[in-house]
Structure formats: C-alpha cells, structure tokens
C-alpha cells in the first residue's frame, strides 16, 4: 500500500513524464543490485539456519563481501551511464543517474541481510523491514515534493534515504532480535565458498526473472520515451498490488518446503497454496477490471487515462504470475533452482523478441501483451515440470478440490464462532 501511495504522490506532482524519468532512474541501482549480488541473499536464507555456522560470521562475511561487490557495482554504474545512457535512459538527466548510484551499496547490503530474517522464519521482522522502508520513503518524498516543491531530485534523494533507513533498521533488528554481534564474527571463507556455490545456482535465474520483469521498461525507453514509461509504470504499480498475497506466501514457502521431510507433504502444500493464490488473484483482478477507469482517474488524474488499457492487458499475466511464483519457490526449496533458470531462459527470450517486434508498431499495449503472454507461458512450463516431477494432475494447481471447500467452510465457521463470542 505504501508503494502505491508513493507512486500516486510522484505521478501527481511530477506528471507522467516525470514519473517515467523517476522509474528509469531507480531502475539503474536495481539493475546493478540484481546482476551483482551473486545469489548471496538466497544463500543466507538457507545457511542462516545451519547450526554449525555462526550467525555473527555469516553477517560479517556477507557485509564485507558485499562492500567489495559494491565497488564493482559503482564502476559498472559509471560505465552504463557514460556508455549506454542515450540508448536505455534517453531523456533522463545524467546527474540524476549519477546521484542514484549512491543507493547501490545500501541496496546490496539490504538484500543480503534482510534474507537472514527469512531464513530464520522471522517473517514479522522481514515484513516490518519492507513496510518500514516504504513508509520512510513515502513520508520523505511527500515532504520534498508536496510541501517543499523540490522536484524530481528530491524524489531521488528520498529514495536513497529510504534505503538507508531500511539498512539501519535491519542492523538494529539483527542485534535486538537475533543477538548478532558483528565484532564477534569473523570473515568465513569456507562459508563464503559454500554460499557462492549455492547462490550462483539460482543467481542467473533471478537475473532472467528480473529481465522478464523489467526489460519492458528499458525497451519502452529505447523505442518510445519517458512519457510512455510513466504511463506503463503507473499501470504496473496498480496491478502488482495483486501479487502481495503470492509474494508473501512465496517468502514463507521457500524455507518451509526446504524443512519438510516427505515429498508427499511438499507436493500437497505447494498445490494447495497455488490453488488459493490463483483463486484469490482472479477475484481481486475482477474487482480491478470493474474499478479500472474510476480508480486510475481518482488516484492519478485524467493525464493517466492511457494507463487504463495497459492495466487491463497486464492482468492475465499477473494472474499467471501469482501461481508461477509459488512453483518457483517450491523448486528452489527442493534444491532445484536450475529449473527456474531453464524456464526463464525461454520466457525472457520470447518476451524481449515480442517487445522488439511489436513496440514500434503498437506501442504501450504491445508491452503489456508481451508481459502477459510470457508470464502465462512461464506458468504453463512450470506446471508441466511440476507434474513430471510429482505426478500431480494439471488441474490440481488451478481448480478447486473438495478439500479446499472443506478448508474454507471450516475457516468461515471459525470466523462466525469468534464473532459470536465477541
């Protein structure tokens, strides 16, 4: 919710073109962070629960190694800015791109440290960190844009400040809730080798997932302009709210699947969660379809009417993606992240090709169609792989089973009993 409110503030104060420029600017450190984290964050989810490893040493090793990665990220950032900004960041002031590089080391540290809470299954702290960072960014941005009218540079500085706030909060919670003592830890080369070996298996898959998720923005900027990016990112920011449930479930599912002992329990849990995520996302999507016109105009203004059709074309992909995320985390939890990699290679290639072929002719709608088509293809391939791996029928991922009706009936009855008691 805070993320959507932030988009509303920026979109209304800076306009569609300003929103597009802002989206392109913050895409740069996100791109660098995704490419250069080397899967250390993913490894932290697994190794933070290994009793033979010191949590103090894991944290210290992750921090020191990430600081080294940050140097590479900053160098890579300057190369991108001075060599390719005209291609993928056309219309974006170079000074803003240089400014946002300050966020890159902080974002890398946030990525590799907050996953420790996920590994410890401390999801309360994990969610508080995410919400706290978004809330801090929202408040600082609102003050800078609405009260002080400082323009887009204030929005960029606010984004950096929000990342710094998240890092400080993470360090505080690591010390407070998990008794992490940085000075008592040591730089553990043995752990680092194992972490890189584990993390790199899923790293390329994560890069490809990111490209499938964000290459459309870069291609829109290349073929069109920041104004088109502004319309597109507003639509994306609305429909992505529908992923809140599947993202939350996926965060819990990875360590849960890894901890279950029998294949039967793993299969049953993933299929059940996939069905519920699919059903809930469809219901929420129908509400969005019904409210699309008044919702976009009310939140963002008449200037963003072009975002409405884009939003509607994105919804099929959002529905497919809600289930695809569940299966992806199941694969990772079973120690088979390479399956996600193989699927991503296919879908990213198709997504990029579709965008290159159709954006010049059809503009914004081509990007939305390409995204939905490739997310749906991604889901279809993963369901086939899951069936071959487990023997589960295709329909058991999508269609309600008898046990689901019993589940919802028991939940409904329990809610009624609680209401009667109160």
Please trace the helix and strand order, writing H or E for each element: HHHHHHHHHHHHHHHH
Radius of gyration: 22 Å
Largest sheet at a glance?
none
Portion of residues within helices:
over 70%
Proportion in β-strands: under 5%
Name the average pLDDT. Answer: 84
Envelope shape: globular
Total discrete domains: 2
Distance between the termini: 29 Å
Enumerate how many helices there are, as a single number: 16
Structural classification = mainly alpha
- Residue windows where pLDDT falls under 50 for at least 5 positions: none
Q: How many distinct beta strands?
A: 0
Report on this model:
The chain is 85% helix and 0% strand. It has 422 residues and is mainly α. The protein folds into two domains: 187 residues, no CATH class; 201 residues, no CATH class. Helix 1 packs across helix 6, helix 1 crosses helix 7 and helix 5 packs antiparallel against helix 6. Pfam families: Polysacc_synt (PF01943). Its main location: membrane. Keywords: Cell membrane, Membrane, Transmembrane, Transmembrane helix. One of its GO terms (cellular component) is plasma membrane.
Short synopsis of the structure:
The protein is mostly helical. Helix content is 85%, strand content 0%.
Main attributes of the structure:
422 residues; mainly alpha; 2 domains; globular; transmembrane helix; Polysacc_synth; membrane; Poly_Biosynth_Transport
Q: Which helices and strands, and how do they pair?
A:
Layout: H1 2-36, H2 40-47, H3 55-88, H4 94-100, H5 103-119, H6 123-147, H7 152-178, H8 189-223, H9 226-239, H10 244-259, H11 263-300, H12 306-333, H13 338-362, H14 364-390, H15 395-398, H16 402-421
């Amino acid at each position: 919710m805070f993320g959507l409110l932030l988009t509303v503030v920026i979109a209304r104060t800076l306009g569609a073109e300003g929103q597009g420029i802002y989206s392109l600017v913050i895409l740069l450190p996100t791109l660098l962070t995704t490419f250069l984290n080397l899967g250390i964050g993913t490894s932290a989810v697994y190794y933070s629960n290994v009793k033979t490893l010191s949590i103090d040493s894991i944290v210290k090793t992750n921090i020191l190694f990430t600081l080294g990665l940050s140097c590479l990220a900053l160098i890579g950032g300057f190369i991108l800015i001075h060599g390719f900004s005209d291609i993928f960041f056309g219309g974006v002031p170079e000074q803003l791109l240089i400014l946002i590089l300050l966020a890159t080391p902080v974002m890398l540290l946030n990525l590799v440290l907050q996953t420790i809470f996920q590994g410890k299954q401390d999801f309360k702290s994990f969610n508080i960190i995410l919400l706290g960072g978004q809330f801090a960014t929202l408040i600082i941005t609102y003050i800078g844009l609405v009260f002080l009218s400082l323009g887009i540079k204030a929005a960029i500085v606010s984004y950096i400040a929000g990342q710094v706030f998240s890092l400080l909060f993470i360090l505080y919670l690591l010390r407070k809730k998990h008794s992490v003592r940085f000075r008592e830890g040591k730089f553990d080369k043995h752990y680092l080798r194992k972490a890189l070996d584990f993390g790199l298996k899923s790293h390329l898959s994560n890069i490809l997932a990111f490209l499938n998720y964000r290459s459309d923005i870069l291609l829109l900027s290349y073929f069109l302009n920041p104004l088109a990016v502004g319309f597109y990112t507003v639509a994306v920011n609305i429909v992505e709210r529908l992923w809140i449930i599947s993202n939350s479930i996926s965060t819990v599912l990875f360590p849960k699947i890894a901890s279950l002992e029998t294949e039967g329990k793993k299969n049953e849990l993933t299929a059940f969660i996939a069905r519920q995520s699919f059903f809930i996302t469809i219901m929420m999507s129908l509400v969005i379809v019904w409210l699309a016109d008044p919702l976009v105009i009310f939140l963002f203004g008449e200037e963003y009417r072009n975002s409405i059709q884009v939003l509607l074309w994105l919804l099929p992909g959002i529905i497919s993606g809600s289930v695809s995320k569940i299966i992806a985390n199941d694969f990772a939890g079973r120690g088979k992240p390479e399956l996600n990699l193989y699927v991503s290679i296919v879908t990213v290639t198709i997504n990029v090709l579709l965008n290159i072929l159709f954006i010049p002719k059809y503009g914004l709608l081509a990007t939305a169609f390409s995204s939905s088509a490739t997310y749906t293809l991604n889901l279809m391939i993963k369901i086939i792989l899951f069936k071959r791996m487990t023997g589960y029928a295709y329909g058991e991922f999508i269609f309600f089973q008898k046990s689901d009706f019993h589940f919802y009936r028991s939940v409904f009855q329990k809610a009624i009993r609680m209401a009667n008691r109160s």
